[in-house]
């Protein structure tokens, strides 16, 4: 029976390979109109003078956009964290750090906003693809009238590669039967190697190449991030050999540090005993680092420890051992990711392409996660066991935390710590803890100052227009025959060589899971939504973001007219971008892994 099933799968894959050229989306290439030949007979050979496909300008820069997953603001060493990131540090020292960069608070919406230059609801990705429902802002079918940066760059003569996490294909389309027009290769990427879900196993991943299930040799024990870096280098190398003058766009999105928390042992060992001080002390240490580095203002103080989190000193010795081990693995996971990204950067340098590249590193698609167990390493089936029994079981499994087959994440105490100095987490679109992430820009051909800090307000939707401005790309009115809607972001190219430039992105709404906010001219109004509660009972708060970096002082009572004004603007914006109806039913956090686990088990059985 297994042989028959295997044969059918081979037949199915062969059929897909045959159909693949018919399914792909190419550059706009209409039939040429040559007009009437001036002579009846031609006895000389005519040279092909006019390019059929648009070509990029000579020495057009390569574009490399790197986005990490679920990394808090204070995790990476580049922004004051205690996880060492020498590659990020090096890029920042020769480029710029953006300290006021914003995401949407969730992974799929952030990726949609980044790639399209439009707000996430505007491109129908108001939530996860797994929780899509039949409303304009939430059905997860990104419209072709709002092209991706890859589609536009390809029209400007670029090769385009997507490597890593995608998470933008509607759930119903994520099978070998397609349709494939909303897979990466249907949205402008010439090559794709990665996974379609929100997460996959780091040692037994479910991967696709193009629209075909990729064979993965899991017997070697190779980490997924290493596989992704290898493939990114291969794509660049092969293109460079074929046409060294042609620029490329690489969208590199490893699954790190999203759960499952899994990394190579040597990276965990690197941090042995480094986090025994606990999460309370960690927050104090990183805030000092952040002020020294200039990535937070000097007046900032830490918000109180969240009420759901125990004081570190209240934990037992065994609990501390388990909790510290989880953070050792988390820091190791990020350092390993930094190293693998460094391999891609080093290849660009060795091949002479780095100095003609624009590299953007977005350290997290949202803040650190709140979807995590309170105690890592506890085996399944112990939900009803006593706390003491669960601690003993976790301690027994301590060496497995962060290694192969581990399905958990760091506990909430560490995710708050790695989000310092902000409050709340991923999914909380009202708070900076959900939407405020570090960004590094390395662009030697465009930046005069090296190692600078930029504090201008920037959002993911600003990346698309910034790239277009830097490379002077032509934005076609039609892409693949679809009339294009305006881009909604604002280029931040004006900040590259002017640290004192006045903000140009001055109005931005936020919403996920009915938690919502609006930023305007340095002020921010926000409402946290409790699931299942009436939206009308949500309390609106007000913050002066120019003088209150991490939302310490709620000024709603002091300035009720400002609250009223900003709420009116919120209504304008959310109606414009199809945010209504508000939707607060969350996808069960562990179901991401259940989806991936089922496919990973299938992959292992096939082997």
From TrEMBL:
InterPro entries: Alkaline_phosphatase_core_sf (IPR017850), Sulfatase (IPR050738), Sulfatase_CS (IPR024607), Sulfatase_N (IPR000917)
Enzyme Commission (EC) number: 3.1.6.1
Keyword Hydrolase appears in the UniProt entry: yes
A Pfam family that the UniProt record links to this protein: Sulfatase
Residue ranges occupied by any Sulfatase N-terminal domain in the UniProt entry: 61-471
Family: Belongs to the sulfatase family.
UniProt keyword annotation of Nucleotidyltransferase present: no
Enzyme class: hydrolase
UniProt GO MF annotations: arylsulfatase activity
Organism: Mucilaginibacter lappiensis
Keywords: Calcium, Hydrolase, Metal-binding
CDD domains: PAS_like
Superkingdom per UniProt: Bacteria
Protein name per UniProt: Arylsulfatase
PROSITE patterns tied to this protein: SULFATASE_1, SULFATASE_2
């Amino acid at each position: 029976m297994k042989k028959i099933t295997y044969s059918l799968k081979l037949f199915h894959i062969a059929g897909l390979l045959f159909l693949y050229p018919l399914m792909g989306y190419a550059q706009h290439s209409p039939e040429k109109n040559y007009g009437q030949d001036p002579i009846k007979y031609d006895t000389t050979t005519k040279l092909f003078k006019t390019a059929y496909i648009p070509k990029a300008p000579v020495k057009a820069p390569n574009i490399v956009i790197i986005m990490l997953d679920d990394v808090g603001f204070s995790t990476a060493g580049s922004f004051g964290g205690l996880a060492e990131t020498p590659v990020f540090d090096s890029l920042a020292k020769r480029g710029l750090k953006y300290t006021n960069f914003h995401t949407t608070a969730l992974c799929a919406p952030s990726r949609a906003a980044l790639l399209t230059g439009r707000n996430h609801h505007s491109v129908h990705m108001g939530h996860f693809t797994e929780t899509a429902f039949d409303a304009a802002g939430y059905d997860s079918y990104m419209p072709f009238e709002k092209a991706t940066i890859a589609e536009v760059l390809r029209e400007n003569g670029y090769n385009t590669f997507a490597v890593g996490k995608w998470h933008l294909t509607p759930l119903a389309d994520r099978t070998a039967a397609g349709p494939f027009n909303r897979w990466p290769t249907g949205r402008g990427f010439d090559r794709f190697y990665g996974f379609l879900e929100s997460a996959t196993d780091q040692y037994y991943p479910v991967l696709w190449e193009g629209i075909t299930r990729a064979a993965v040799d899991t017997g070697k024990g190779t980490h997924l991030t290493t596989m992704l870096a290898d493939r990114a280098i291969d794509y660049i190398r092969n293109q460079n050999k074929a046409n060294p003058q042609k620029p490329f766009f690489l969208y590199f999105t490893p699954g790190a540090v999203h759960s499952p928390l899994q990394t190579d042992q040597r990276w965990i060992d690197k941090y042995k005993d480094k986090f025994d001080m606990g999460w309370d002390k960690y927050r104090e240490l990183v805030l000092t680092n952040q002020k020294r580095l200039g990535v937070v203002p000097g007046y900032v103080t830490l918000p109180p420890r969240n009420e759901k989190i125990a004081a570190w000193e209240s934990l037992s010795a065994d609990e501390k051992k388990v909790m510290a081990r989880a953070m050792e693995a988390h820091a190791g996971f990020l350092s390993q990711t930094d190293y693998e990204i460094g391999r891609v950067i080093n290849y660009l340098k060795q091949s002479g392409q780095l100095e003609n590249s624009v590299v953007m590193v977005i350290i997290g698609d949202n803040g650190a996660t709140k979807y995590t167990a309170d105690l890592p390493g506890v085996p399944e089936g112990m939900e009803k066991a006593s706390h003491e029994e669960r601690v003993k079981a976790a301690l027994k499994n301590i060496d497995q935390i962060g290694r192969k087959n581990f399905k958990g994440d760091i506990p909430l105490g560490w995710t708050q710590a790695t989000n310092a100095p902000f409050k709340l987490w991923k999914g909380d679109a009202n708070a900076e803890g959900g939407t405020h992430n570090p960004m590094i820009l390395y662009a030697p051909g465009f930046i005069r100052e090296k190692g600078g800090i930029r504090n201008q307000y920037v959002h993911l939707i600003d990346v698309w227009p910034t790239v277009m401005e830097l490379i002077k790309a032509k934005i076609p009115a039609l892409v693949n025959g679809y009339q294009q809607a305006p881009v909604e972001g604002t280029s931040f190219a004006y900040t590259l060589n002017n640290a004192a430039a006045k903000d140009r992105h001055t109005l931005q709404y936020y919403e996920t899971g009915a938690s919502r906010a609006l930023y305007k001219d340095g002020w921010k109004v926000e409402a946290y939504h409790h699931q299942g509660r009436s939206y009308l009972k949500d309390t609106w708060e007000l913050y002066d973001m120019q003088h209150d970096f991490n939302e310490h002082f709620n000024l709603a009572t002091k300035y009720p007219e400002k609250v009223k004004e900003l709420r009116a603007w919120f209504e304008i914006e959310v109606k414009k971008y199809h945010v209504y109806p508000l939707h607060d039913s969350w996808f069960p956090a562990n179901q991401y892994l259940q989806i991936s686990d089922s496919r990973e088990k299938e992959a292992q059985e096939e082997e």
